[in-house]
Specification:
The protein has about 575 residues and is mainly α. The protein folds into 2 domains: about 400 residues, no CATH class; about 150 residues, STAS domain (Transcription Regulator spoIIAA, 2-Layer Sandwich), CATH 3.30.750. It is built from 25 helices and 8 strands. Strands 4-3-5-6-7-8 form a 6-stranded mixed β-sheet. Helix 3 runs parallel beside helix 6 and helix 18 packs antiparallel against helix 19.
Length: about 575
């Protein structure tokens, strides 16, 4: 159905007249935040200011049509802009026209990948981007943005863009600090903090930038060397096709893959958090298609890569926006500014834009998350911290890729050497429990009850077999029975089945009988095909641990009675 692809049509069919005032107010509020931040983020990425406005018009309209979130507003984002600059500025070699073509091509390529991914139901990939990686990524990007804007705040043109070299250069050149620029930047930063504290619903960035621009004009700071944005061309973006050629597209393909991971994950997390707050669900595949189409539109019409913007989405939600009509109003209001108010935008001081970016980046920082991760999982803490360091030291995309590889390696290590458990009885409780969880628990005499808590596959089969034999050889006295609880063995392959067969033989050589409890259906399939079930003996395979233990105890009692009778 058409409404499945264009949710806004469904919302408009159910639209209530009383919602219109909320959506209009929310849309204008979003535009009030969107215009100054779009210019600031364009400045962050090294684009002319109008490019930020172009990325805040048609892409916002496209998402309004195709997105499943009622609150999410897409547009330029600090992390995305920092990533674009890190990836493409080295390829542009100082050529702004080529840089703009690279950026447009990157947005189109990333958008096409997301569109294809959404149509083939690949939205689930967002679940593989671990939270510690996202925390580390955002912290790394935020610190990189702050370091990169400090030079503009104090009126120094820093040549280095990397985190540590830029800070070192800034410290060495502090004597070149431009006092009027520093005063403008610090005043803007202070005003941002005050507006956010005492008028949290007000468009802080707009208020601060208007005040800074007016102050610089009235006090004549521009004549004292305070740098301004400069002329902003009025008008709407025109369609253009990036002319990179096949080889140029090849060079940025992997960059586009990395951008997909970052933009889609960031947008989805924002969309999900606000959807949960407002009591509805998000369709990941539809979000992938919508964000992809927004990026394609941005690339073809003078913009750059966009994603879900958490600050503008928060403004929408706080203003009571009900539907994506908010984004329609915001995009149209931004277009009006681009058409009729472009000239005043050119008088915004660069130091004030730097203050806005520093303030925005400061909001991305989440050091408390490090303390939380350190308490619950040391590896995730180190992974998050390593991602932050990686983003700052080796770059945005390499740092994220390294973190993802480390996370996958950790998963493999946990499957290779998984947790396992010895089970026993706890007085007063009927079922069998982990012996390490209660000081009153005790093993069942004459047997080991063991649970292997992972799939049994080719890369951990040898570890499984060695671990079982180690437990048997260390036990005093040696058990007569080894009960394998298979409930947590969620997968089995031919190598795992062979390991079970070999384990059965080696346990028999030690005078220990292997018993299987709670086998899965696939274990029966492998057992029947290989004859493993016949060799273990169907009388040694049970549907529960309790029935296995009861049968063993009955057999031991029968064997003892037979011995006494003889």
């Amino acid at each position: 159905m058409l409404t499945d692809w264009i949710p806004l049509l469904r919302d408009l069919r159910q639209y209530r007249p009383e919602w219109l005032s909320h959506d209009l107010i929310a849309g204008l509020s979003v535009a009030a935040v969107q215009v100054p931040t779009a210019i600031a983020y364009a400045n962050l990425a090294g684009f002319p200011p109008e490019v930020g406005l172009y990325a805040s018009m048609l892409p916002v309209l496209i998402y309004a049509l195709f997105g499943s979130s009622r609150q999410l507003v897409v547009g330029p984002d600090a992390a995305t802009c920092a990533m674009i600059a890190a990836l493409l500025l080295p390829l542009a070699h100082g050529n702004l026209a080529h840089y703009l073509q690279l950026s447009a091509a990157l947005a189109i390529m990333a958008g096409l990948l997301m569109l294809i991914g959404g149509m083939t139901r690949m939205g689930f990939i967002v679940n593989f981007f671990a939270r510690p990686i996202l925390i580390g990524f955002l912290n790394g990007v935020a610190l990189s943005i702050i370091a990169g804007q400090l030079g503009k705040l104090v009126g120094i043109t820093v040549l280095n863009r990397d985190f540590a070299p830029s800070l070192i250069e800034l410290v060495e050149r502090l004597g070149e600090t431009h006092g009027f620029s520093l005063a403008t930047g610090l005043s803007t930063l202070m005003l941002l903090i005050l507006v956010r504290r005492f008028a949290p619903r007000a468009p802080a960035a707009l208020v601060a930038l208007l005040a800074a621009g007016l102050a610089v004009f009235l006090l004549g700071f521009d004549g004292e060397g305070v740098k301004l944005v400069g002329a902003v061309p009025s008008g709407l973006p025109a369609f253009s096709l990036p002319n990179l050629g096949y080889e140029g597209a090849q060079k940025i393909f992997m960059d586009a893959v990395g951008l997909v991971i970052v933009t889609f994950t960031s947008g989805m997390l924002t969309a999900r958090s606000f959807a949960t707050r407002n009591g509805y669900a998000i369709n990941a595949d539809q979000e992938m298609r919508a964000i992809g189409l927004s990026n394609i539109a941005s690339g073809f019409f003078g913009g750059f890569a966009v994603t879900g913007a958490d600050s503008r989405t928060a403004v929408n939600d706080a203003s009571g926006g009900k539907t994506q009509l908010v984004s329609v109003v915001a995009a149209l209001a931004t277009a009006v500014v681009a058409l009729f108010l472009a000239e005043p935008l050119g008088h915004l001081p660069i130091a004030a834009l730097a203050a806005v970016l520093i303030y925005s980046a400061w909001g991305l920082l989440d050091f408390a998350a490090y303390r939380y991760l350190r308490k619950i999982d040391r590896f995730e803490f180190h992974l998050s911290l390593g991602t932050t360091v990686g983003v700052m030291v080796i770059g945005v995309l390499p740092g994220v890729v390294l973190a993802i590889l480390l996370a996958l390696l950790n998963v493999l290590v946990k499957i290779y050497r998984p947790a396992d458990t010895l089970l026993g009885k706890v007085p007063g409780m009927e079922s069998f429990h982990d012996l390490s969880l209660s000081p009153d628990s005790e093993p069942v005499p004459g047997m080991i009850i063991y649970r292997f808590e992972a799939p049994l596959l080719f890369f951990n089969a040898d570890y499984f077999k060695a671990r079982v034999l180690e437990l048997v050889d260390r036990a005093q006295p040696r058990p007569r029975w080894f009960v394998l609880s298979a409930e947590a063995i969620s997968q089995l392959d031919s190598t795992g089945a062979m390991a079970l067969d070999e384990l059965h033989g080696e346990l028999q050589a030690r005078g220990v009988q292997l018993v299987i409890a709670r086998p899965k259906q696939y274990m029966r399939r492998y057992g029947q095909a290989s004859g493993l079930g016949d060799r273990i003996g169907m009388e040694n395979i049970f549907f529960s641990i309790r029935s296995a233990v009861a049968a063993i105890q009955q057999r031991d009692a029968g064997a003892a009675d037979s011995g006494q009778a003889e």
